[in-house]
Amino acid sequence: MEVEKESCEKVNRFYLWLSCFITIMNKLHTMVIMLFKKVKKIGEDDPRRILHSFKVGLTLTLVCIFYYVTPLFDGFGSSAMWAVLTVAVVMEFTVGGTLCKGVNRTFATLLAGALGLGTHHIAILCGEKGEPILIGIFVFFFSSAATFSRFIPEVKKRYDYGVTIFILTFSLVAVSSYRVEDIIEFSHQRLSTIALGVALCISISIFIFPVWAGGDLHHLTSTNLDKLANFLHGMRDKYFGEDLVDRSYFQSYKSVLNSKATEEVLVNLAKWEPGHSGFGFWHPWKQYLVIGASIRHCACLMDSLATFITTLDKSAPLIGSNPRPKPDSEELYGKIRSACADMSSETAKALSDLANDIKARSAPATARLHVAAAEEAAERMKMALSNGAEGGIVHVATIGSLVGEITKSAKEIVGSVEELAQLAGFKSHEAVNRTMVKPLADGESQHTTITVNE
Amino acid sequence: MEVEKESCEKVNRFYLWLSCFITIMNKLHTMVIMLFKKVKKIGEDDPRRILHSFKVGLTLTLVCIFYYVTPLFDGFGSSAMWAVLTVAVVMEFTVGGTLCKGVNRTFATLLAGALGLGTHHIAILCGEKGEPILIGIFVFFFSSAATFSRFIPEVKKRYDYGVTIFILTFSLVAVSSYRVEDIIEFSHQRLSTIALGVALCISISIFIFPVWAGGDLHHLTSTNLDKLANFLHGMRDKYFGEDLVDRSYFQSYKSVLNSKATEEVLVNLAKWEPGHSGFGFWHPWKQYLVIGASIRHCACLMDSLATFITTLDKSAPLIGSNPRPKPDSEELYGKIRSACADMSSETAKALSDLANDIKARSAPATARLHVAAAEEAAERMKMALSNGAEGGIVHVATIGSLVGEITKSAKEIVGSVEELAQLAGFKSHEAVNRTMVKPLADGESQHTTITVNE
To answer: Are B130 and B218 in contact (CB under 8 A)?
Structure first.
């Protein structure tokens, strides 16, 4: 009996362990599959990423030849290590990125090396004891100044990496000079291996499946225009076409809103790139930032429109659906609606024409015509409204609607801050608040309190 | 005569050179003063930048002691160089940045060192000739895979620097093993000097005037809320207070629109930071992104409102100014206006209360009351409008106004793309365009052509 119970327990325990093990293995299996899918998607989204990975592998393997081929290794000594280091750090996804880092690294090393040697020669004059002290002072002064220069926006944008390398090399050369006998040889070897690594990176970057930041920027701008056009096409076909359920196009402009950071990075990298595939070295990359700002402004307006429509869904009769407006304003209503549809459609055409023009790199011609047609429609709407005698009220009411939307979004902010307060365990000043709440002007504090407790 | 002429010419040339020299010196002088002012402003804007620069200088000077103090130098050999290198690269402005880079560097070096040694031991088995080939294959494989992993968003966010260091160290150790005799000693020395450099950086970062990314993020969120509140306060005091000239508050929300990139960087760094000044290690940093998204949505609505008001200035009677609406709608007009003023004022109070709550880290209490009061006002406006019988029309007209604004912003985009086309010398397809232009539906092509030529 006792033995049977014990073996039963053993079996149970075994099954428990087994089920645990199976659960863990299943979870691991799911995770591996998820990771695999993610990696596959990343590769499929932009196959240039896979090529870039192989390019880095290839460059590193090539640079390793330095170590293998003995005559070359003997020429450079242990400095050959710097070539490996350079390749690992300098190779970037875009040609602009590689050029920026490579040029920065080479020139910063040159400058810092020269300054370091100068420091060494001045320090020698101070004798055995003075030398380390003077070098220390120089290192402190130069590295502090260089670090501060990184806060200057112009330096930060184009030479940030160079300044880091400057600090690094200067300290290294100035300090090594105290120990290394043949400091000139040391500096020269370092510089040549770095220059060699940079040259290799830049060549591979440019000549084997190059990825141009400029091209990406150009493409991004045209894609963003297409996204805006999609929203307006959706408005025309669905919303004003009385299909009020499908709102998938409401998402299309969202990614445009936060495109500024990507654009700025690409512009900074594109400026480093030589002329390529039709873009000259002096291509006006900065203008893309101007276009980008206008595009984001437009996306902001679309966001407001989408928010307003979503609010209407919940609180008021839908445009184009029942309940219809009163019969006496039916005609006015129809006029405004048709004008809106025309505006959306013509503006959408203008934007997608622009996107195509940018893609084809041709001067825009048709876009202005479509915008003019959209303006015609806007004028028509204004006329209809002022004939309808509601002109003045409509302007105030539009402002009112927007302020109302702002109020609603403020409520959202309150909600998310409250969630933060709860998650982070912010203290609640019950007592403090009671003295802080000012009585409401219209004496509706009762109603308000109920809202709080909702 | 000849001599006089010659000397006169000489004097003239001298004056020409002198004026040239003075112009250049003046320009240089202006540039130096400009630079000095800029540097002063950068320092004044955030004095922690100056402190950070001195901290970097101090850390580098400290690490140089390794080179000076002979017993320490003898212990580490030329590997002491890696400590200098580490400090120059790892020291960042925020504690989170330094921790992120330091931890990444240490663990990536450890992992890559171990893998490199493993590779070395496997490669030895293949004999003299096979060794370099096998090492080459390993380097190619690991560096390609590691480079690809940088495209996975989660890796990119937190471990990007670590992957770079992994590639660098792995290549270096695997390849050096072919040459350096005592590879274990070499790896060990490298790892200890790097760890030492990292420890020094982290200590100085944390204990001498620390700059916390988390604190900056917290501060940024509350400042952004204040900016939104300022806009609404401006609306209340100026626009609805009939001061229609001062529009300075129209700028206050602009910087909020593009705050996403900064916020994301700060969140990623804040996650690395230990508990500090009231923020625990598990502080819900992610929630700040949620709040940030709501804040940006609100700023977007403000942008639309500001755009609409600017348009009204140019094209239609100003709200609150002459010409007033027709006498029969005067009362309705006044009601809407007062409701708008109340909404602005209450929402502004809610937002600035939230900003204060975040600053004080107390749970928001009064904000909900103010939002409720603003909602009351919105309800009042809705009632007034529906009593005024224009309800239906107003909704359509608001949508119309927004679509009209989108049209206008599209015109802006067309303008900036045209400028790009001109600057970049895009080809104009006169012929192609002629076939592409579709005839306008309402037969107003004559008028439209005139608009183009404006």
So the answer is: no
**Which residues neighbour A374 within 8 Å (Cβ) at sequence distance 6 or greater?**
A342, A343, A346, A347, A350, B407, B410
Cα torsion B43, B45, B49, B51: sign: positive
| pTM as predicted | 0.85
Point out which residues pair with B427 in neighbouring strands: A362
In angstroms, the CA B136 to CA A418 distance is: 56
Could you tell me which CATH number the domain at A213-453 has? 1.20.58.220
ipTM: 0.84
| Whole-number pLDDT of residue B326 | 56
Q: Give the pLDDT confidence score for residue B80 in this predicted structure.
A: 76
Listed by start position, the domains of chain B span 1-45, 48-207, 213-453
pLDDT tens string A156-182: 999 999 999 999 999 888 877 766 667
Contact call for A88 and B300, based on CB within 8 A:
no
> Looking at residue A314, what is its pLDDT?
64
Q: Using the beta-carbon criterion (under 8 Å), do B326 and A389 form an inter-chain contact?
A: yes
- How far does Cα A21 stand from its chain's mean position? 42
Put simply, the chain B residues between 315 and 374 with a CB less than 8 A from any chain A CB are 315-317, 319, 324-326, 329, 332-333, 336-337, 339-340, 343-344, 346-347, 350-351, 354, 357-358, 361-369, 371-374
Highest mean pLDDT among A176-180, A397-401, B373-377, B379-383: B373-377
Concatenating the DSSP letter of every residue in B341-390 gives: HHHHHHHHHHHHHHHHHHHHTB---HHHHHHHHHHHHHHHHHHHHHHTT-
* B100, pLDDT greater than 90: yes
Q: Which residue of A has its CA nearest to B453?
A: A368
Coil/strand/helix, residue B285: coil
- Whether residue A135 contacts residue A238, with contact meaning beta carbons closer than 8 Å, is answered with no
